[in-house]
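pasting for ref
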Amino acid sequence: MTYDAPARRRLAWPSEAPTMTLQGAALQNYNNELVMYIEELCQKRGELYQQIQQEEEEKERLQGEVRQLTEKLTCVDESLQLKIASLNDLDRTIAETEAAYLKILESSQTLLNVLKREAGNLAKATASEQKSSGGKES
């Protein structure tokens, strides 16, 4: 019979055992750090999401204000245009009225001059008639 030697298993040398333990500890540390950084990133994401929500709400509020102000500006602009048109109409009416008034003044002055002249002529005619009739009244 032949004797077969048992298969040799590699035995861990005492110096290799701490290396395995150190590697396991390092792996655990890496895992802990990864989890910590992932949690930190998730927290930052949550904070950023909150900021985005707040800014979107602010944006909507500001857009609403812009809409309201735009509508108000449109109303004020339309009112202003109507008032400017009315002012222009009044200016034109005043200018036309003043021009007509000046013509009336000129006509009144002319009429007054004519009346004075005629009154003077009438007074002369009456005075010369009285002289020629000898001052007698009829």
